[in-house]
Design goal:
This protein has two domains: about 1-215 and about 405-425, 3-Layer(aba) Sandwich (Rossmann fold), CATH 3.40.50; about 230-400, Rossmann fold, CATH 3.40.50.2000. Helices cover about 40% and strands about 15% of the residues. The chain contains 15 helices and 16 strands. It has helices at about 15-30, 85-95, 100-115, 125-135, 150-155, 160-180, 190-195, 230-235, 255-265, 285-295, 315-320, 335-340, 375-385, 385-400, 405-425, and strands at about 1-5, 35-40, 45-50, 55-60, 65, 95-100, 115-120, 140-145, 185-190, 210, 240-245, 275-280, 305, 320-325, 345-350, 365-370. The strands form three sheets. Strands 3-4-2-1-7-8-9-10 form an eight-stranded mixed sheet, sandwiched between helices. Strands 13-12-11-14-15-16 form a six-stranded parallel sheet, sandwiched between helices. It has a two-stranded antiparallel ribbon with strand order 5-6. It starts with a strand and ends with a helix.
């Protein structure tokens, strides 16, 4: 099949949507399909690149960089607000480049590529152009929803009042659902995400909606002793027990609670405080604030901020961990949780969003109440002090991760694309 993947967020950006879109493209190419990716250009100019290894063509659309934003892709902005509104913060989360006139370029690219099906990943400017294209040229459309309304509204102070936030979430939810319901087939990564975004009464919802894991490549993420040279490169003590957080370093991830819980952990009875390191991997607008907080808490010497680390070195950091901890309440799935589980890490997380589908309390980790710093600290201590429990959680994580193999995701999407084509053909007069 000829498959076009359209996304307003794509590699080399590093959030969940970008990672999934790239994994999907590469997986489909390895399965023998022709793949075209459509995304904003990070130099502003329209161009088409072809990956020599996979054969994937990427059409980068003419785009503009968001004002007040640094030139580097994903670089943390120095100016965090404009007229009191943290728009660069929001843009950092959802993409810093916006297509200028995507329809004409999409029309040109797709008319030449002639896709059998288009797979839409986002609901921004490219999505609007894609919806227009599929309607005009009768091309089958598959859509995947990744976002969670709170991910957006939590970023904007003007939307914080309860009633305003509730109304804003409702509008965002309706807007996102509109892209899904006009597809031949729609997916979301978890049942929770479906329940949150899709109305229970689907009378006017054309698309079949299915929970389908984003998946990861288990041929890359698996248990193994870490590469010592990689640890040395990032100044990590090979003899320490490392508690990991990996992901975007943004306020919505509540990493401040992880730091506070680590501080409490060091003071708990029986905990080998001197042998512990908290390792924060990732970049984001909250990085500077968290470094200040670590100093204020007196844990700066045992807290390592590594910044952005890309595979394959990232995988070695995972393998060096004792456990993975997150306090995020806004995950529609959480690719980092799957990656951590795949290398055999016990998980400590909060019971919110879709996290419980990956961190199963008593099987591969500990679920805590949201914002419960003491609960998170005690959960970490429980794993540290009970060797047998940690071994059982490791086995549980590996078992759960097997359900999220990218190969299974790719195979199911191949079936979905075929179904979408059949459905679209059946609509024709």
């Amino acid at each position: 099949m000829r498959i076009a993947i359209a996304s307003d967020i794509y590699y080399p950006m590093t959030n969940g949507v970008a990672v999934f879109a790239r994994n999907l493209a590469r997986g489909l190419a390895r399965a023998g399909h022709e793949v075209m990716v459509i995304s904003p250009s990070f130099n502003g100019k329209f161009h088409i690149d072809t990956d020599e290894e996979t054969g994937i063509k990427t059409a980068y659309l003419t785009s503009l960089r968001f004002p007040f934003y640094p030139d580097q892709i994903n670089e943390v902005p120095e100016k965090k607000d404009f007229l009191g509104i943290p728009m660069p913060c929001l843009t950092y989360r959802y993409g810093i480049w916006w297509s200028v006139n995507p329809y004409s370029e999409i029309k040109k690219v797709l008319s030449e590529f002639k896709p059998d099906v288009i797979h839409l990943q986002t609901a921004e400017t490219i999505a609007l152009a894609v919806m227009r294209y599929v309607k005009k040229y009768n091309v089958p459309l598959v859509s995947t929803g990744h976002a969670y309304p709170d991910n957006i509204t939590d970023q904007l102070a003007i939307l914080k009042p309860k009633l305003i936030k509730k109304a804003s979430n409702a509008m965002i939810r309706a807007y996102m659902a509109s892209f899904l319901k006009h597809s031949e087939y729609a997916t979301m990564p978890t049942e929770m995400a479906i329940g949150d975004l899709i109305p229970k009464n689907r009378k006017h919802f054309k698309a079949t909606v299915e929970a389908l894991s984003n998946g990861i490549d288990l041929s890359e993420f698996y248990p193994k002793r870490p590469n010592i040279e990689v640890l040395k490169k990032y100044n990590l003590d090979n003899k320490s027990q490392k508690i990991l957080y990996i992901g975007r370093v943004d306020p919505e991830k509540s990493i401040d609670l992880v730091l506070k819980a680590f501080k409490e952990l060091l003071g708990l009875s029986g905990v080998p405080a001197k042998k512990l390191e908290l390792v924060i991997v990732g970049d984001g607008i909250d990085l500077a604030n968290l470094k200040v907080l670590a100093n204020e808490l007196g844990i700066e010497k045992q807290t390592k901020f590594l910044g952005r680390v890309m595979p394959p070195e990232l995988i070695e950091i995972y393998r060096a961990g004792k456990m993975f901890v997150t306090a995020s309440e806004t995950e529609t799935q959480g690719i980092v949780l799957i990656e951590a589980a795949a290398v055999g890490l016990p998980l400590v997380a909060v019971d919110a969003g879709a996290v419980s589908e990956l961190c199963q309390d008593g099987k591969n980790g500990e679920l805590c109440q949201p914002r419960d710093v003491n609960g998170i600290a005690r959960a970490m201590a429980k794993i540290l002090l009970d060797t047998e429990l940690a071994k059982n959680y490791k086995l549980g994580s590996i078992e759960i991760a097997k359900r999220h193999d990218l190969k299974r995701t790719i195979a199911r999407f191949e079936e979905i694309y075929e179904q979408a084509i059949i459905l679209k053909n059946s609509e024709e007069p």
